[in-house]
Structures are given as C-alpha cells and as structure tokens.
C-alpha cells in the first residue's frame, strides 16, 4: 500500500516491472501507479501514484527504486501492457470545507486526533518506535492549514502507513475524499490500539 507523501522503497526484480520502471524514467514522467492486489479484479479500485526519486540499477538487472507517494487515484478502466497492469484513472482530492463553523469543528477534530496519534506513537515500545523511524522517518509535523494539500495533512498518511491495519481498511481510508471522515477512521483505529497499549 502506498500513501501520499510517504516514502515507498521498492526492490524490482521481475522483468515486466523492470521494463515499467525503465519506461517511466525514459518518458520523463518518473511516476507510476501502485494498487494493492484484488482477487476479483487483479488490483484494487484505488491507489496512489509513486514518484521516482532515484533508481539504483544492480549488475544482475534488479533495481532498488526510491519512490514517494504522490496523488491518490480511482481506477476507471483496467488494461495490460507487456505483462504489467495499466489503468485509466482519475485523481482524487479532498473536498474542501467552506463553512467557518464546520471548519472550526474540523480543526478541533484534527488537533485531537493528531495529539492522540502522538501519544500512541510515544507509548510504543522503543523497539517498534525505532523500527518505524528507520523505515518511515519521523511523523510529519502538524500543518497550520489542514486543507492546503489536495490529500490533506501528511501526518495522516504517515500514520496509516505505520499502523498494523488490514489493507482493505487502509484502502477504504485512501479512497476517502473527506478529511473529517478520514480523521474519524484514524481516531477509531487509534482508540482500538491505545486500549491494547494500556493492558
């Protein structure tokens, strides 16, 4: 599962995906879409674009690809090209809240869930916290304007990436276009895991 703003290092060894990466680099787009697998359709209806930051080609043809999540998308139509999946997509953006009273409530919810996330992370065992920091880096800071980015605050995506949650649940959150709904889902997850921490 890939998320906006979250690093996603990949080890590419299958010839079809090596071709896909090479084409992404040669065409100059330096990006491709990532979806989790789906038993019925081959891959999920929602995913995230990955922007290639660097590719390290190994002598045996494999490569280590340094990517970071970009825009979220919904799959409109599936296809195949030279053995790898392709799709026509539409990009997703959060719907902005215009009403001042609603925005005030959204900020309060945002701040509450952010503090809950910080508390959950600080209460993890040192071993787990260290592993998360090594792999994902530190949790992004709280943003002043919570509606500035089309995908909402970066810390939400970082948190979803590190929480041990079923991929189908993660996918449902990835597909949401409401920051309020996303924060409520994250709050439910954190409440569940915080209960486990207190045992």
Automatic annotation (TrEMBL):
<dbReference type="InterPro" id="IPR015947">
    <property type="entry name" value="PUA-like_sf"/>
</dbReference>
<protein>
    <recommendedName>
        <fullName>Lon N-terminal domain-containing protein</fullName>
    </recommendedName>
</protein>
<dbReference type="InterPro" id="IPR046336">
    <property type="entry name" value="Lon_prtase_N_sf"/>
</dbReference>
<dbReference type="GO" id="GO:0061630">
    <property type="term" value="F:ubiquitin protein ligase activity"/>
</dbReference>
<feature type="domain" description="Lon N-terminal">
    <location>
        <begin position="1"/>
        <end position="194"/>
    </location>
</feature>
<dbReference type="InterPro" id="IPR003111">
    <property type="entry name" value="Lon_prtase_N"/>
</dbReference>
<dbReference type="Pfam" id="PF02190">
    <property type="entry name" value="LON_substr_bdg"/>
</dbReference>
């Amino acid at each position: 599962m890939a998320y906006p703003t979250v690093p996603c290092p990949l080890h590419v060894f299958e010839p079809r995906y090596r071709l896909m990466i090479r084409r992404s680099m040669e065409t100059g787009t330096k990006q491709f879409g990532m979806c989790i697998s789906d038993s019925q359709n081959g891959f999920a209806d929602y995913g995230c674009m990955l922007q290639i930051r660097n590719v390290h080609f190994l002598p045996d043809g494999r490569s280590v690809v340094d990517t970071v999540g970009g825009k979220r998308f919904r799959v409109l139509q599936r296809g195949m090209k030279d053995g790898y999946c392709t799709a026509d997509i539409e990009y997703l953006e959060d719907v902005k809240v215009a009403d001042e009273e609603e925005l005030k409530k959204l900020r309060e919810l945002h701040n509450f869930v952010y503090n809950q996330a910080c508390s959950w992370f600080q209460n993890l065992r040192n071993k787990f916290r260290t592993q998360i920091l090594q792999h994902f880096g530190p949790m992004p800071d709280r943003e002043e304007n919570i509606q500035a980015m089309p995908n909402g605050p970066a810390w939400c995506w970082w948190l979803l990436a590190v929480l041990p949650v079923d991929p189908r649940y993660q996918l449902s959150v990835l597909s949401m276009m409401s920051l309020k709904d996303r924060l409520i889902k994250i709050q439910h997850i954190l409440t569940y895991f915080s209960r486990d921490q207190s045992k």
